[in-house]
Design brief:
By secondary structure, the protein is mainly alpha-helical. 69% of the residues lie in helices and 4% in strands. The protein has a two-stranded antiparallel sheet with strand order 1-2. A hairpin with a 5-residue loop joins β1 (35-39) and β2 (45-49).
Length: 229
């Protein structure tokens, strides 16, 4: 493996270890009072749980990060194709930058909401999720167009996996849509009325994903080098 990429494996390991340590701390020393584990469309907590559930959630996200980023790094270290290795490393970086911060931000929101009187949190509880979605879209969109075919990230449809041209075009389209949505979402986060802002952003993400799926089929259908099913 190229020496200039070894730092990314170290960053992955440190991030996973930090999340697991945070999950352990919450499980042992977190609040013993009920914690809001789910929020309704109005931003009010509609399900409560204990610190063990929150610790389990953070630990699960750490394992997802280990499987995703660690797996991408594993395959990148073993490929002899420099272009594919670079793309897999970019996908690994996206995984760390996106998944890594979400877990502590989620824990912070849950712990903060637990301290607020019931009925006073409301829409304020939806500002952070909208901001997280916006940053996720922005970071993912910035790099997605350079990620090669893989099993963990991207517009992975039956058609994009059978046509490199369909993969490249559908992922470039999705990357541009996500980047634009993330930029607009960051600007709108402190201004948009909640819960409307969050749900509009989720609907836009689903629309972008659907458009990209259709694009993968459209390009595959006209690609003379496509693989048959």
């Amino acid at each position: 493996m190229s020496a200039r990429f070894q730092w990314l494996d170290a960053l992955t390991a440190v991030t996973v270890a930090a999340l697991l340590a945070g999950a352990l701390w919450i499980g042992l020393y977190g609040p013993t009072s009920p914690l809001p584990m789910h929020f309704g469309m109005d931003g009010q907590p509609d399900r409560w749980g204990g610190r063990g559930e929150l610790a389990g959630l953070i630990g699960f996200m750490a394992l997802v990060l280990a499987a995703t980023a660690g797996g991408l790094g594993f395959y990148a270290a073993r490929t002899t194709d420099a272009s594919r290795r670079r793309g897999l490393r970019i996908a690994q970086l996206i995984s760390v930058v996106v998944i890594g911060p979400i877990a502590p931000l989620l824990a912070w929101q849950i712990l903060s909401a637990a301290e607020q009187p019931v009925g006073l949190s409301g829409a304020a509880n939806l500002v952070l999720p909208m901001g997280i979605l916006a940053v996720t879209c922005l970071v993912t969109g910035a790099f997605l167009g350079r990620v090669p075919p893989n099993v963990a990230m991207g517009v992975r449809t039956p058609w994009s996996l059978k046509s490199r041209l369909a993969w490249d075009r559908s992922n470039r389209l999705f990357g541009r849509l996500m980047f634009g949505l993330g930029l607009a979402g960051l600007i709108a986060t402190p201004l948009a009325p909640q819960p409307m802002g969050l749900w509009v952003m989720i609907a836009a993400m689903l629309g972008a994903a659907a458009w990209s799926v259709v694009e993968s089929w459209r390009v595959w259908r006209t690609d003379p080098d496509r693989q048959p099913f």
